Amino acid sequence: MTSKRTVVHVFVSVFILSIIKLCNGGVTSSYYRKLEYSTDLPLEVFTPPPGYNAPEQVHITQGDQTGRAVIVSWVTPSKPGSKSVRYWRADTHNKQHKHKAHGHIKTYKYYNYTSGYIHHATIRNLEYNTKYFYELGTGHVTRRFSFTTPPKVGPDVPYTFGIIGDLGQTSDSNQTLEHYHSNKKGQAVLFVGDLSYADNHPFHDNRKWDTWGRFIEKNVAYQPWIWTAGNHELDFLPEHGETVPFKPYKHRYHVPYKESKSTSPLWYSIKRASAYIIVLSSYSAYGKYTPQYEWLQEELPKVNREETPWLIVLTHTPWYNSLNYHYMEGESMRVMFESWFVQHKVDLVLAGHVHAYERSERISNIVYNITDGLCAPVMDPSAPIYITIGDGGNMEGIANSFTEPQPSYSAYREASFGHSILDIKNRTHAHYSWHRNQDGEPVAADSLWLHNRYWYPYAETSTTTTMA
Ligand SMILES: *[C@@H]1O[C@H](CO)[C@@H](O)[C@H](O)[C@H]1NC(C)=O
Ligand SMILES: *[C@@H]1O[C@H](CO)[C@@H](O)[C@H](O)[C@H]1NC(C)=O
Ligand SMILES: *[C@@H]1O[C@H](CO)[C@@H](O)[C@H](O)[C@H]1NC(C)=O
Ligand SMILES: *[C@@H]1O[C@H](CO)[C@@H](O)[C@H](O)[C@H]1NC(C)=O
Ligand SMILES: [Fe+2]
């Protein structure tokens, strides 16, 4: 395995150096990967844990605004079972230090599918920066997991996020998840939407939501994934009576939206270490006077960069995308919110939806109005960098058709599956890297030192561009 990987590295480096094209814009990597679509792995591959009514599909996410709470979710297939989660500090062996958090159960029907018992329990008042064990189930089917809470929120607190999007459940998805999982640096995942792709199957076969929950458990039971809803979470099927958008998603994936005064789980914010993370919904109304618009308008001025220097926005549909897919789908939201992002000096906007990888320059297009004719994005040091990372590897395959020439706002683009790592060091510097699945874990195909827009607003140099 190791020697095979080394050979692959050498091959990849030489290959990239020789065929990278410099266009009007940045770099279009022509790294070759197989283009055949991967179908979903069969349902039977994702076996439930052994034992009658064993808790399965265990997943955690942040449960409050600052990281002292965790929402633990799981499914019991046959009967409700125990509603509580037992937890204790990893550094205590005294049984008296075991605590219990009580949850509640939800079930739902979708066309002719009936869900198992979906449990959600919020554990509160945890210590910062502390490892906990937690247990679900009883007797023979007790299952034990662990998580580590983040450090207390503060301006120079280092923290490392993984970034994954459009994952699905194919062998490519499995490669992406395994690749990220083997990277010991990731402490929490920023997930930019499109989870199970159940809706690509007849009647949105909701058993695919169950298999996806089993698939990701190995990682998400141990570190929180911060959820964004994508178009594949809509599950809108009116011809078969399913008229409530986001029904399976909202039943299965809970987020702490009330903590940030949001009125919907589809948009909310959290603070974690030195980052302030705002999650938006591309598929909910965001025009003027709508709930999401009003919330974001109130929300942005609340961000205190002295406390959380890094301001990161997650949304599913990219605003800047130079591939021949989803043309202008993000444009209406860009028109509504881009000037706010520039005004509030957002550091990074993460999106998925397009099944490839792309990183933009710091650009904005806020001068444009319908009469002045100025419609091209311009370099803008107050603007965010836009990352499209819809390359988790779902059954729809890779997006490999680029617009030519590469626009000047596009710094790097490649048609490969992978994940990213955002390694925040302090208030001024964060190391960002993108890791394609075909490479060994430490190899970064695209990387740069990000400079914080509030504390250190100087230009960045990407290692990829320098190399070419
Ligand atoms: C749901 O309906 C589909 C299509 O009629 C059928 O193939 C499937 O077996 C049904 N599932 C259940 C649980 O009844
Ligand atoms: C996922 O990949 C791992 C590591 O290569 C492998 O052990 C596992 O069997 C794969 N899982 C599935 C469902 O293919
Ligand atoms: C739009 O552009 C025109 C032409 O430059 C300018 O006169 C007008 O004030 C602009 N409108 C707004 C709302 O900025
Ligand atoms: C912040 O981190 C960067 C990268 O590790 C380092 O070069 C810089 O000196 C750090 N700044 C401070 C104030 O420690
Ligand atoms: Fe999508």
TrEMBL record:
Residues 55-149 form the Purple acid phosphatase N-terminal domain. SUPFAM superfamilies: Metallo-dependent phosphatases (SSF56300), Purple acid phosphatase, N-terminal domain (SSF49363). Residues 160-357 form the Calcineurin-like phosphoesterase domain. Residues 1-25 form the signal peptide. Residues 383-441 form the Purple acid phosphatase C-terminal domain. Its EC number is 3.1.3.2. This is Purple acid phosphatase. The keyword Zinc applies. It comes from Macleaya cordata (Five-seeded plume-poppy). InterPro entries: Calcineurin-like_PHP, Metallo-depent_PP-like, MPP_PAP, PAPs-like, PAPs_C, PAPs_N, Purple_acid_Pase-like_N. Keywords: Glycoprotein, Hydrolase, Iron, Metal-binding, Signal, Zinc. It catalyses: a phosphate monoester + H2O = an alcohol + phosphate. One of its GO terms (molecular function) is metal ion binding. Belongs to the metallophosphoesterase superfamily. Purple acid phosphatase family. It holds the Pfam family Pur_ac_phosph_N.
